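Throughout our pipeline, every protein is held as a single compact record rather than as scattered files. Nothing more is needed to write down the fold, since each code stands for a local backbone conformation. For reference, a complete record is included directly beneath this paragraph.
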Amino acid sequence: MSEPERADEVGTVEPDGCVHPSMGVEEEFLLVDPSTGHPLPRNLAVVEAAEKRGVRLQLEFTQCQVETTSPVCWHTHELRTQLAEMRSAAADAAAQCGARLLAVGVPVLGSAVLPITDIRRYRTIASRFGYLAWTRGVCAGHVHVGVPDRETAVQVGNYLRPWLPALLALTANSPIHRGVDTGFASWRSIMLSRWPCSGPPPWFASVEHYDAVVEEMVECGVILDEGMINWDVRPSAHLPTVEVRVSDVPATVDETVLLATLVRALVMTALRSITRGGCAPKVTAEALQAGYSIAAREGLTGHGIDLTSDLVVPAPDLLGLLVCHVRSALEELGEYRAAVAMLTEVLRCGNGASRQRRALRKHNHVSDVTATAAQSTLQVGRAALSSGADVISPPIRRDSPRVAVKNEALRPPTGPDLRTSAR
């Protein structure tokens, strides 16, 4: 629930003068008993142990969670190093306190109710929202990207809306909850959808429109304050950044790096369109929710909705379309081949949801899931070091089925036709 440190360094101009947005990442982790795999309420001890090692961790909403916050980064190799070091340090601090660190979206085992961290704000939220708060123990990954101002952040958010389901499918890492396969690749997103002002963000005409909606939500008592805005894209209240909150905490360092790489490229692509006087596609709330529902259920193993064309396509194709959409930005950053390599590796090996389910199928023991998750948490792959493919050419089928809802209002009025460029 924090934001990347060194706020004075957040911005859009790199120190060497190259105009590229900065980025920062927050990752939330679960603490579990190494023997049972059940959530372990020791976050205060873990934070104190890390501090003695010179590492700053954040307390999270429940006593079974901690959060890492990266410094502001300009390059993906820098971000990878920071993420790997922070995960390792957090895992060491957890082990020192008799706990195990897991990058999972929801608790795999244990009670649904988790003890709330003893912070005044968290106690107030728990008092207001009851069971929703007591069962909130979910872990996400948040990416901040530097933009000029809050108005720009709101406009960029409109551009990102059609691609949020693809990012959710990519990072899905919470299929198993309380020992049961939920049938969803991202059960975290389903759990969070019960909260007000969460999930798919509305389309906003301006920052004034955004502020007016937030003010109304607060005045009506729907939320306590602006800090409870949990839409999956939002402008920071304190920093010149746009924050993307759609993902489960990714299972591995490389998956987090891939997420941040794609998010920054999406922001850059949006900024270019804004500079040219373009308008974001007005994807309806119903269509966006449909995209979310399919992404949360199927992850990378099923289908997804391309909200720029109203087509249902295989989930890997949807990720290919995303990469094609942001290819120019990735090439400008010198990150296109690395992004392709990382995405190819995820599609080959599966994301966190796929890993958890493979582990469960192996011996039908949920303990195998927590062991696999612990190993993945500290895994740093070599995908970005390989050359990767030169292009992603998803096999978009001309006979791909249309979105089931036939209402023409669900079809975006504007937006690029990516099918030709993707071939």
